[in-house]
Known about the structure:
By secondary structure, the chain is an all-alpha fold. It has one domain (about 5-184). About 85% of the residues lie in helices and about 0% in strands. It has five helices and two strands. It has helices at about 10-40, 50-80, 85-125, 125-135, 135-184; strands at about 5, 80-85. It has a two-stranded parallel ribbon with strand order 1-2. The chain is elongated, with a radius of gyration of 22 Å.
Amino acid sequence: MTRERKEGTVVNTTLEFLGTFLWYGFLWGFVFGILQSILVGIVKVDKFLLNLILSAIIVWSLSWVWGYVVCKRSTDVVFKKYFVDGSLARSLYKNITIIIVVFTIISTAITFINAKNSLEKQLNNTEFKMQSVFMTSEEQGKIKTEAQNQFNTVILIFTIGNVLVLLSLILVEKNILNKLVEDN
């Protein structure tokens, strides 16, 4: 026995999407968040560029897969529960875009905090402190400046990646909605 679909409105379809998005988003996001924290944490001063490139590629790939799966699943749930015509789909798309943008901003902020904590740990670890005893204050300043520059590079690279993932997901979501409206 198939369940009858209800008449869709901007409010009930958006809330349905958001509820499913949050549920799947947190489940997937928890796993990817841990992976992202680990990957940002392995960006070390000595092998900085290699670690950064590998971390960025893996995090962007995971973010895109996470975003695609969560958006696709959330949109499918909405269309199974409600009738959605072309006009409603356009309004829903605007709201979904806002949801994706907000989550991207949160994700970027978490990356920023993880990278900052990783940098501070590296600069405050015992080995660095022991080495800094034998350095002049000028040498210590140079190392701290280099570490700060690397931190800024990490943030820049991951922010660019998050924006690219965001734009890609917004386009993908448009295609998902168009396909479902056609099949509806």
